[in-house]
Amino acid sequence: MRIFHQHLFNTKLGRRYTIGILILFLVLGNIQRVEGQDLGNEEVKRAQRTIFIYNFAQQIGWPQIAELETFKIGVLGPDRTVIDLKAIAQKRKIFGKPIEVVRYQFVKNIKDIQLLYVHNKYNYDIAYILRKISKKNILLVSEDYFYNSSMINMVNVGDSFEYEINENRIEREGFVIAPSLKQYAVTSSQKWKGLFKSTEQSLVNALNENEEQKAEIKSKNDQLKQQEKKIENQSKTLDNIQEKIVENNQWIKELSNQNQIQEKKYEEKLLIEKELEKNIQEQVTFIKAQEERIKQSVVEIEEKQRYLKEQNKQIKEQESILDRQRGEIEDQKTINWYLIALISLILIGGFFVYRSYLNKKKLNKVLQAKNKEIHEQSLDLESKNKELEQFAYIASHDLQEPLNTISSFIGLISEDYGDSFDEVGKESLNYISDASIRMKKLIDSLLEYSRLGRSTDFVDTGMETILQEIKEDFRNVLERTNAKIHSVKLPVVFGNPIELRLLLQNLISNGIKFTDKETIPEIHINVTTKNVPINSQTETFWEFSVKDNGIGIPKKHQDRIFAIFQRLHSREQYQGTGIGLAHCKKIIESHGGNIWLESEEGKGTTFYFTIPKKENILLDKSGIKIDL
Amino acid sequence: MRKLKRFLLIDDSKATTFFNKTIILKTEVVEEIAVAYNGKEALDSLQSDSTPELIFLDLNMPVMNGWEFLDAYHHPSNPFQNSKIVVMLGAEIGKEERERLLSFSQVVEFRDKMLSKKVLEEIIQKYFAQEVSSKP
User: Fold this and answer.
1) What is the CATH number of the domain that holds A489?
2) ipTM of the complex
3) Which residues on chain A place their C-beta less than 8 Å from a C-beta of chain B?
């Protein structure tokens, strides 16, 4: 059977061989065809290689690049790439430098170049190259070397190239790598290996090795076949020997059976004699044992009588102890009753405590639910507020662009054609120009308004310093209008310095701006502390006041003065966008304070605003003020 | 004064490109002004025509925006990387975006979207003084 199998296997193997060889021929044929295609694309590949090398150079930051006259590229070995690089060098510059390409036969001759290209097929040892060019500001671009063994290592894939970069090695040489270069690099050795295309030579070698191995397997199979035949023969002779042994055994068994029957008869006689003797001896020993037992029984009876006496004595003693214990148990019972009463009292008390706890818990839950509701509402409000701000920001942001286009074209028209317009045309152009400038200002201030109150980085802010800075900025205006600013010494408050400065600046400039032409503006700034009861606590505020001697604000307009883009006067009378007080209100509200005014027409206006003192303020992470 | 060869304007707004083209024509610094209305058209024009010395690039465009154009332009397989690029801003941009733009080595300037003669002359003086100087 086994031999038959072996045979079958061998014929199957033989068939497989022929199929395998057929496939091999097909593959070899294909390889040759692929080779042909590769040759066709060789031009493209060479051009791509050159482009890659130049682009690598362009995307590296070279130290002392400015001091170079030319950018030199070296090529190792009898590589045709030198021709390709030279061809493009005449048309292209790297960092504005003309390019020079040099060929080297030996690594030790390399010097005064910026970039070195080497292909693995010329068998230069990459470690040796790296050692030789180290600290000379030379960028090594290699091809077909192992992953991570070079600085920039490229490999041909189809018509193009992939590459990997060794960032540490490049940066150690003092180069800076552009992010775009990192972005497209291959970053794992696994992927790199996948790209590594095995050459034709290694394929042929592998095929030859395969052939040899197959021949070896075949000869081993033959050996195996011979050995199997030998084993078959040996097992046959073994079978013969075993048969003989079985026959011998049968014969020996029969002989021994006859002998055993005679032996048994003799043994039975001997046994009967022995048993008779044994019976006589047993009877003698039995009589002796009975005598002994009688003696022992007498001793035992005496001992038991003594033991009974002792027990009687013990019973009497225990009875007296029991009497005493009964009395004690009686006492214990009364104590137990007291204990039970006490425990039930404690239990009742505990029950009442638990019930009140349950009630409290229920109340707490209701409170929590309400708190949650309030919190959600505030979050909702906050997000709506943010949305609105975002809307204002985006709207003004996007409005800027078309407006810029309009003003640019107006500029172009008035420059090139302004002279050929008649009077109406020129005036119209002026109005359009004015309007677009004004709209730009409006959009700018709207943008600024939407940005206000976003920042929550509050610091200690010296209002006195801010006032002095504003005075310095306004010096020209103050000199022109003869305006005076009187102020007490202002405190340090907790807030955003930029916003607080804008606030004070707006109020002061309003005070100077809104005056009759005959009046010399006078501003008085004052500050007090004020306690405001909020819920059950009182909070302390700084209360500032800015008083002017201007035209005043009529009662009926006082509540809409803080709204955005509100103007009470024509632009011709008083300039401005009408956003200043809206800014002020937003700033003060983001600081947790309040702003209001008192005014009498023709006499002047006083603006008041409050800012919480620092000890009251706790800001949580979201910037929402929490009242203590 | 010698002239530069070629500028490329990339912006989806016809008004903007018309305006900027007019301004550049007035300064008479360049022989040819090419226009592309998005990054894709710009890449195509780079493939087929001669390389421009200067590219004015808008960021916000349909089909292929300025960022995508910069990415494609800097891919190592692109052979036309010799232009200087001025990024044209319609509105302010954040610090991070600014830094990311400057990481592209050819991006040299940020300017307002609508050019002016003054701005253009500044750019020419800064980067092409040698090329436009009147000596032969």
Assistant:
1) 3.30.565.10
2) 0.74
3) 48, 51-52, 54-56, 58-59, 92-93, 160-161, 163, 178-181, 183-184, 397-398, 400-401, 404-405, 408-409, 411-412
